[in-house]
Design a protein that fits this description.
The two termini are 18 Å apart. The model is unreliable at 941-946 (pLDDT under 50). The chain is α/β, with parallel strands linked by helices and 946 residues long. The strands form nine sheets. Strands 7, 8, 9, 10, 11, 12, 13, 14, 15 and 16 form a ten-stranded mixed β-sheet that branches. The chain folds into four domains: 3-15 and 644-808, Isoleucyl-tRNA Synthetase, Domain 1 (Orthogonal Bundle), CATH 1.10.730.20; 21-42 and 49-181 and 445-467 and 544-603, Rossmann fold (3-Layer(aba) Sandwich), CATH 3.40.50; 207-414, Alpha-Beta Complex (Isoleucyl-tRNA Synthetase, domain 2); 839-902, 2-Layer Sandwich (hypothetical protein PF0899 fold). The chain has 29 helices and 32 strands.
Amino acid sequence: MSADYKSTVFLPKTSFPMKAGLPQKEPELLARWEAMDLYTRLRHQSRDRERFVLHDGPPYANAHLHNGHALNKILKDVINRFQQMSGKDANYVPGWDCHGLPIEWKIEEEYRKKGQNKDQVDIVDFRRECRAFAEHWIDIQREEFKRLGVLGDWKDPYITMSFAAESRILREMGRFLMDGSLYRGARPVLWSVAEKTALADAEVEYHDLTSTTIWIRFPVIAPSQPALEGASVVIWTTTPWTMPGNRAVAYGEDMDYVLFRVDEVAEGSLAVPGERLVVGRKLLEDVLKQAGITAHTEEASFRGRDLAGTVARHPWRGRGYDFDVPLLAGSFVTDDSGTGFVHIAPGHGEDDYVLGRANGLPVPDTVDGSGNYVDSVPLFAGRNVFKVAPEILEAMREVGALLAHGTLVHSYPHSWRSKAPLIFRNTPQWFISMETLGLRDKALEAIDATRWVPERSKNRIRSMVEARPDWCISRQRMWGVPLAIFLHKETLEPLRDQGVIDRIAEAFEKEGGDAWFTGDPKRFLGPEHDPDLYEPVRDIIEVWFDSGSTHAFVLEQRDDLKWPADLYLEGSDQHRGWFHTSLLEAVGTRGRAPYDAVLTHGFLLDEKGEKFSKSKGNAESPQKAVDSVGADVLRLWVVSSDYMNDIRYGPEILKQATESYRRLRNTLRFLLGALDGFTAEERIANPDALPELERWVLHRLSELDETVRRSGAALDFHEAFQELQSFCTLDLSAFYLDIRKDVLYCDGVDSARRRACRTVMDRVFHHLVSWLAPFVCFTAEEAWLARHPETDGSIHMETFPEVPEGWRNEALAGRWEAIRRVRRVVTGALERARADRMIGSSLQARVDLYLPQTLADGLQGLDLADLFIVSGVALHEGAAAPGEAFRLEDVEGVAVVVEVAPGEKCERCWKVLPDVGTNGYDGLCGRCSDVIASGSYPASAPADGG
């Protein structure tokens, strides 16, 4: 091609670079949004719109972000941006959880390094250090979240340690105190010996632990059946340390039991020939094996209910355990493992406690906060429960109670912070009753009234609420909202006085929770109560009550939000965490859930399917990906994932997201380049005046608009992303734009075809960049500014463009589906011809197309050479194709023969045509000659060749 002819071609021209350079470009766009105060402008712009509120579940302010945070916050941002561009006012107020054990543990570590005991530090000084630690990490995390493109009210977030929040949390606790739901009681709770405090379920993780297992005889002293006279029931447990707390044995009412006599035993067996034992029938063989019993005789069998009324004695009777041990029916007893009998220690297990309470059993206090037996425990006072197993075994052996012992590796609760194993320990704690005022039933009703996404998550939280015990809200720590209650010294009843609660809350609002530790009790009790009669409780409120109360001091207290929220969104672990405690707190104080809908995303997995976890130390920082490929690629990974299930992440997956991003960017770049110089005057306003191919593109935009809006309503952007990517890759790049490149590059400036193409491309760009804006917020902004360089606005201030009803044309879509099937056969034939080296470019080809009359009718009126990107097409309607013709099995009746196109190559458009050089210009075809003659071509070559 001559230089003059090259300068007459409309090559794409754009400032939007092929190489994204996101790690450098994104901070520039963040600075622009900061300078224009985008969040505030959005609030002013949308102040009269319907409000949408996604209430932020507070992350914990104690470390750098990991990719689990990125997944969560990006998804929230995508939803908020989508709602904003859907025409709503999507305020987003981020927040932080600041109280609790993780921060306190960090501060304690610093004291331990210095050889100091934190209990000797002034509590207010200690709390001040905790507060400073949280403030430090809030500042760091704020910037890390912003770098991900998360738009929100970062200037005025909520934090649970603000004085206003601490005051409101206390008032929320006071509501339960005043209505009688909050009570002080002693019951077993999960207790961390390392941290010396009770833990919530959400603070517990499970790891394998090797435990000593024991099979113990409980001699029957009052049989319900004559055959039981002189026999022993056998229990099995993996926690020998709980034996001093034993007060009963449980059986399954509908299980089968067998009484057998020991006849022969193996060497070393602890079983005694002639003794008579009772075990579950299904577990008999295992018990015989474990005990080394080689021969036995069955003497009787029972149903579990036949054992009702039987009484045994504790194996250590005469050694300080001189009490009867009743046999009780327990619904939790199974015959999956063990012996079919479960030893019951009411102070060391939830099932044990409930069964004991129902049967009037005492709840002994056997273990202190350090995991040592208290002084009143016979035989083992002062011993540590995690080291006492050998002594328990020996004590059982001495009295002839030990039938067998072994070890078992099993899943066991551990503290997620210290990694230490936990115990169930009976302690005085403060509980919110699930039954007193019907909290459980109300919560279940609220669950049924809430939209759960995915729907299966409803069953998960429902089962948790159905089975959960009373809510323990007290912690024996220092950093948190004080459980500011006065306890009567004689009656041990809490003081229920709203005036006292109000005075404490007012002090907290001005001075924070420290006021509880520095203030004179008289200040809060007022003249109505004698301070000598009351003792202030020094526990703190558990951190899950803090976060469960955020709806009260965020949604209700801020004018820019509303109660209830439209949406809560967190990981699936929050069914027993934030979703759960927010539900109980709101239902207990306001009668309904604080949310209309709840979206749950899955856990983060590595490429092998293993979970990432802070506790494992393998939770990678999103900053690594941001620094290498940019936040938009990370955002694209989120929306391209099926995030309602567990999500995989790793180098290869990030590489795939990068490739997806590259394809989207290239599409935007081509559109921008091809639209260079496009003005409103060039636009064809009437869609009916457009060629069929352009009207088909408008139809596809109509379909995509429906998909995108449906996905947004379903909170499932995975489908929308897949459709948009397919549109860019298959419909645009591989089809429409591929076909129209010749028109865009080589038609004259006044060409109706070119004007129509650019009109549609303008529409495509506007829709596409708008739809992509919530997903790849930086790239959409960059593309928008490249298209509108003079604007002081933002793509994020736009709403999704409306799609005229007339764009939808199902009949046209059906016709073009058939056309594309035919084109696939032609494309396949051209690829084979290229492989056979018959042709290089497809423009060097002429094709003979054989197809049925019905398909041929659908091609009428089309420029088939343009459609197939060849230089000539001969259509053979209903004729038999040669045997060597190319065919595809899934496109019946279509065959193609490829030949070298006759003629010369046009030096401007590269088509091979017979008329090249016959129209007044050497080396040009007729179309290109007309363009040159009319002067309707660019004046000079573009700076960027695209």
